Amino acid sequence: MASVVQALGIIGYPLGHSLSPLMHTVALRHLGLPYRYQAYEVEPGRLKGALEGVRALGIRGVNVTIPHKQAVLPYLDELSEEARLMGAVNTITREADGRLIGHNTDGVGFLTALREEGGLSGAGLRVAILGAGGASRALAAKLLREGAGELAILNRTPGRAAALAEELRAKFPGSTVAGAPLGGPEAAEAVAGADLLVNATSAGLKGGAEGVIPVSPDLLRPGLVVCDIVYNPLMTPLLLAAKAHKARPITGLGMFIHQGAESFRIWTGCEMPIGLVRRRLLRALRGGSRV
Ligand code: ATR
User: Fold this and answer.
1) What confidence tens digit (pLDDT) does each residue in 13-60 have?
2) Is the CB of 164 under 6 A from ligand 1?
3) Dihedral sign for Cα atoms in the order 116, 139, 64, 170
4) What's the start-to-end Cα distance of the chain, in Å?
């Protein structure tokens, strides 16, 4: 008897830029696994209904992206230790009894890419993170857990930066975490003293805040490693500016693949064929058309 095909997917809004369906479909087909992965564009007001749908329809699991990574929390039955620490979820599993469990694979994906492409571990690192949303809190918590030396959360809306910094100081006693508005003198000082600058905002995202650089390019300098969580386009305006100022750009593709590989492992128990997936994603991204 043929095995029953189970549903997987991604919920977010908008989803035009997402390559998650392509990534997971390539991996599932290559391994011959009985799942289908679909994009579910869910407007913020419909999030609760969408999660009830996941539960009722027996969808095996979903990824969660902008702007729902924090908003999903109240609708889940349980959180992994990592997701609880981060206060954000990017992966949900639906168990056989209908319970929804929230995980977060963004931090693992980020650290794996940082090690592979930047030769860096979190220990002792001085980091400036742009953004105070779900992605930012996941990366910040992971870096602090790995022993980052100093962290500055820089955000367009200053209150969110201050609130996240306070929450992180409470969760990681003894850590040095500051929150400041983007564009101000504290932000400039934090970037000047950082080893690593991470864009965890959606600025630069194709089909969204396209063309936007969330920090003054004058702050970019040789020796600074600059990572962007946006992977479509591959070279965001921030990464192009980093290259022009002789800083070291790291695209969001590695983090994207590794967070996806961890979600894939959680749902299917199998290893994603990373090399194949990377080649297919690069082809799609370099194709130029919106994918
Ligand atoms: P998620 O939870 O998925 O990270 P989010 O909570 O909507 O999504 O967070 C998006 C982040 O990108 C926020 O830090 C947002 O800044 P605000 O808190 O001021 O809204 C940031 N962001 C989005 N567009 C931006 C832009 N054009 N310039 C600078 N920051 C931007």
Assistant:
1) 989 879 999 999 999 999 999 999 999 999 999 999 999 999 999 999
2) no
3) positive
4) 36
- Residue 157 CA, ligand 1 centroid: distance in Å: 9
Q: Phi then psi for 12, rounded to 5 degrees?
A: -175, 175
Instruction: Evaluate: CB of 69 within 6 angstroms of ligand 1.
Output: yes
pLDDT at 289: 43
What is the pLDDT, as a whole number, of residue 288?
Answer: 52
Rounded Cα–Cα distance for residues 122 and 147 (Å): 6
The DSSP annotation for 111-160 comes to HHHHHHHH---STT-EEEEE--SHHHHHHHHHHHHTT-SEEEEEESSHHH
pTM: 0.93
Amino acid code (one letter) for 163: A
- Bond before 233 cis per omega within 30 degrees: yes
206 lines ligand 1 (CB under 6 A): no
Q: Is the pLDDT of residue 235 over 60?
A: yes
137 lines ligand 1 (CB under 6 A): no
List residues with catalytic annotation. Answer: 69
Indicate which residue's Cα is closest to atom 7 of ligand 1: 67
Strand 61-64 and strand 6-12: the pairing is parallel
